[in-house]
Design brief:
This protein has 24 helices and 15 strands. By secondary structure, the protein is of the alpha/beta class. The strands form 4 sheets. The chain has a 9-stranded mixed sheet with strand order 2-11-10-9-8-6-7-5-4, sandwiched between helices. Strands 1-3 form a two-stranded antiparallel ribbon. Strands 12-13 form a two-stranded antiparallel sheet. α11 packs across α14 and α21 crosses α22. The N and C termini lie far apart (145 Å). Pfam families: Abhydrolase_1 (PF00561). Belongs to the AB hydrolase superfamily. AB hydrolase 4 family. GO terms for molecular function: monoacylglycerol lipase activity; short-chain carboxylesterase activity. InterPro entries: AB_hydrolase_1, AB_hydrolase_4_sf, AB_hydrolase_fold. Keywords: Membrane, Transmembrane, Transmembrane helix.
């Protein structure tokens, strides 16, 4: 009886609770569900609107990481107001995901028109160089900043875009317009196969492909030797730029550079982008972009890589496994990531470099930033902001400006007006002169060309002798006889290297030409060897001894045994002859 009473009381309590819940209006339930959903969305999308509100919309200060003894910070970065100010994100874009998505789908890019130039790499690949001149922005018909002559002194900024980005990307348009608006010329080096250009070789770009940067920079320096060269890399382009600067060290024509939102460590970013649900959305979005890029060049990729695997790729790692790893001949995807990460190269950067990253970057995580390496290098200044997303950094109510453009412009402008540029130009000039004078010493290999010249592998230098022959129409035979006399003089004096002036060389060549006419039938091999010897002696006397040392050490095991055997035979003959006489 007591059990039934307790059961009745328990059931009646539930009935009363249900009746009370039914008395609550439906609108209150909808409001509660909305609040729960908004709370979940606020955390899922990483909103920081209320944080900014409580902070009085003052923004957060920019954090700088640099070496205490850095001249780059004292002379350049300390004079950039944006690096010592605060960054406040657009209030209605108070989320790294909203900022990143808004940049890609809208972006408010300026309207501009490029001038396209097709650059052909040594391996047959084609690279689209899109130019935006300062005169194009200002509408100057006189061409105040034209780059069609070698006397152009207007600075040139080389832009290296991110993964699957090209000159049509909104953030790229923001960047090139900002730079050109301040009187500089900009050239955007599109990645291979992008920018509407077909693949003309079997070489594809990847996160660590620096050969295109090397060739483009060398071409620009040769064509415009008086124009200072700067570089700005974004996302994967920043990784390529930093890796290139670390590989070449001081042997670059760039005066300064900026790396924006670099992934730094590709292996860490790969783990990060597949960690959470929201990051997986970026992973799939990037994979779709890569598959679209692959579809444009299916005829080549289907021959070089696993096309079936590419078509089924659902992440960046899958695409790298079936395409990038195979074409780049890496054993595993992790090997590719480790080999191409720029974090291990930033310590070797030898020019002023500004690096900007957002701590809430949804693609390139803060975990990959090489804080200690940047702090150890006196040429690197690392600027980090608490918010900003990936390449976005929108500011203002209308979200019409990208904050990171200001510090990049300020850094390069201050650097251009600083003594760093002049010292860099002098250093580049000296390094080029040393390279030409000591190309044999610096080259890792020695190559013998068809005309008998000795030079470092990959360095195509025109000799003074060939210039004299072509410019003055002097027969090569006369020059060869002059070289023979020079070599005899070098052997007799044994004290200094003969580097005659151009006038004396011409006079000697003319005298030799008039006195000796039968030298035209001279053996080609002998003349080639004479040219080689003279080139070696002209460049550096140490080179001759170095080559002689190498020749002796490499051939001694064979020559030594042969000499010992010959001496043994002579001694045997002597002793045997003496024994017979006895």
């Amino acid at each position: 009886m007591e059990v039934e009473c307790a059961y009745t009381t328990h059931s009646s309590s539930y009935d009363l609770l249900l009746q009370s819940l039914l008395l609550i209006p439906i609108s209150h339930y909808l409001l509660a569900i909305s609040l729960v959903f908004l709370t979940f969305l606020y955390n899922f999308v990483e909103f920081h609107f209320f944080e900014d509100l409580l902070n009085g919309f003052r923004g957060d200060s920019v954090s700088l990481t640099y070496n205490p003894g850095s001249d780059v910070y004292e002379g350049v970065a300390s004079k950039c107001p944006s690096l010592h100010g605060r960054y406040l994100a657009t209030p209605w874009l108070s989320s790294p995901h909203l900022q990143t998505a808004f940049l890609n789908f809208f972006g408010n890019p300026p309207v501009l028109s490029y001038k396209r130039q097709l650059f052909h790499a040594q391996d047959g690949g084609t690279i689209a160089l899109d130019w935006l001149m300062a005169s194009d922005v200002f509408g100057d018909a006189s061409g105040m900043s034209r780059t069609d002559t070698k006397d152009c002194t207007t600075p040139i900024v080389v832009v290296i875009p991110g993964l699957t980005s090209d000159s049509a990307s909104p953030y790229v348009k923001h960047l090139v317009f900002k730079i050109a608006k301040h009187g500089w010329n900009v050239v955007l080096s599109n990645h291979r196969g992008l920018g509407g250009i077909s693949m003309t070789s079997d070489c594809f770009y990847n996160a660590g492909w620096t050969m295109d940067v090397r060739e483009v920079v060398e071409y620009l320096h040769q064509k415009y030797p008086k124009a200072p060269l700067y570089a700005v890399g974004t996302s994967i382009g920043a990784n390529v730029l930093v890796k290139y600067l670390g590989e070449v060290g001081d042997d670059t024509h760039f005066v300064g550079a900026a790396a924006i939102c670099s992934p730094w460590d590709l292996l860490i970013c790969d783990r990060f982008i597949s960690r959470r649900l929201v990051q997986r959305l970026y992973d799939k979005a990037l994979a779709i972009g890569l598959k679209g890029y692959a579809q444009l060049h299916k005829t080549i990729l289907s021959r070089l890589a696993d096309w079936e695997g590419i078509s089924k790729s659902r992440s960046v790692r899958d695409f790298d496994n079936y395409a990038t790893r195979v074409i780049g001949k890496f054993e595993t995807v992790d090997t590719y990531y480790r080999h191409c990460s720029s974090a291990s190269f930033v310590g070797n950067v030898s020019i002023p470099l500004l690096c900007i990253s957002a701590l809430d970057d949804p693609v390139c995580t803060r975990e990959a930033i090489p804080w200690d390496e940047c702090r150890a290098n006196k040429n690197v200044v690392l600027a980090t902001t608490r918010h900003g997303g990936h390449l976005a950094f929108f500011e203002g109510i209308t979200a019409s400006h990208l904050w990171w453009l200001n510090p990049v412009h300020e850094f390069l402008s201050v650097l251009h007006g600083n003594s760093f540029v002049h010292n860099r130009k002098k250093k580049i000039h000296n390094s080029i002169s040393l390279t030409r004078e000591h190309s044999i010493d610096q080259g890792p290999f020695v190559s013998f060309t068809e005309d008998g010249m000795v030079s470092a592998m990959g360095n195509e230098e025109t000799s003074v002798i060939e210039n004299i022959c072509h410019d003055q129409n002097i027969p090569e035979s006369g020059v060869e006889i002059t070289l023979e006399k020079d070599i005899r003089g070098l052997t007799e004096q044994n004290s200094e290297t003969h580097v005659g002036s151009v006038d004396s060389s011409l006079q000697s060549a003319k005298d030799a030409t008039s006195s000796i006419n039968g030298s035209k039938n001279q053996n080609d091999i002998t003349s080639h060897l004479r040219r080689s010897m003279d080139q070696v002696l002209r460049h550096n006397r140490i080179s001759l001894w170095l080559l002689a040392y190498i020749a002796i050490t490499t051939t001694w095991p064979f020559l030594g045994s042969a000499i010992i055997q010959s001496f043994k035979k002579k001694f045997r003959n002597i002793f045997s002859g003496a024994g017979l006489r006895r």
